[in-house]
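LAB NOTEBOOK - FOLDING QUEUE
OPERATOR: T.R.
BATCH SIZE: 2
PURPOSE: Compare the predicted structure-token outputs for two unrelated chains run back to back under identical settings.
PRIORITY: normal
REVIEWER: second-year student, initials M.K.

ITEM 1
FIELD SEQUENCE / FIELD STRUCTURE:
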Amino acid sequence: GNLKIIPNKLLDIDYSFSLDNNMETANYHLLKTGLTINNFVTSFEFLEENNFVGKESYVENKTSYNFKNNTSLSFSTRKNKRTDLTEFYNLIYEYKNDCLVAAVKYNKEYYDDKEIKPEESIFFSLTIKPFGKANSPNLNQW
């Protein structure tokens, strides 16, 4: 099933679910919300899969602020509910115009395996529309 509610321009809610034939056991929940107030945009997503559908479960947030001079600052993170660990943090400062997107990106990824260490990266990204995209090497390793 699916339920979508858009009470006004600021808020939207989308809920998808799957139940067994007995209507008692939930196999899938996906809840997405979005809130937009002027230049501030945030969204939350909750996913839970059970039984034959899968085993994934997380809560994710994406938040951004769009400045008036074609620049934006955004942050996103996800927490795995099965392992109770944060999967990643992303922080992006971006400039956009008609044919160019330039960004400085910081990414930190975590792992649930004790032998693998978290990975951090800082890099510069340049996209020339419609030709392509180029990324610098990880500046954190210099």
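ITEM 2
FIELD SEQUENCE / FIELD STRUCTURE:
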Amino acid sequence: IHPEDRERAGEAWQRAVEGNSVYEIEFRAANAAPGEERWLLSRGRVERDAAGRPVRGAGVLLDVTARRRAEAALRRSEEEVRRQFAELSAIYATAPLGFAVFDREVRYVRVNPVLAEINGVSIEGHLGRPVSEVVPDLAPQAAAIHRAVLETGRTVRT
């Protein structure tokens, strides 16, 4: 057990011996290669005799390094998505251009304040509604652009 994790692991075992019976602890391995972190999961129970005294411990030791690495990668990815979303939200809110995101049926999913002002309809008045209801004059052009995006996978600027 890595020196920094020994006290915590010892406390988990002690609680099991003193009455909890079951223990589970994750800790770093002390013998990992330099620069490499190895994580282990120890899970087991303390067996007792008829008088309730601990007589033996039984358990398993699993290498959970891959799971720990995957969890860390997921956290980094989630943080990056949050950062990108915050950046996109700031652009949406402050850009001097009208922006909109549509679903496959050409219904508004997201609209920035500038586009709402251009169309003379509140942001809420756009959401979930098709272009043909919000700005009927633009519906044919919007449908053609939307179809092109779906067919090519590329954005279109007008």
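REVIEWER COMMENT (ITEM 2): The mean pLDDT is 89.
FOLLOW-UP: none requested
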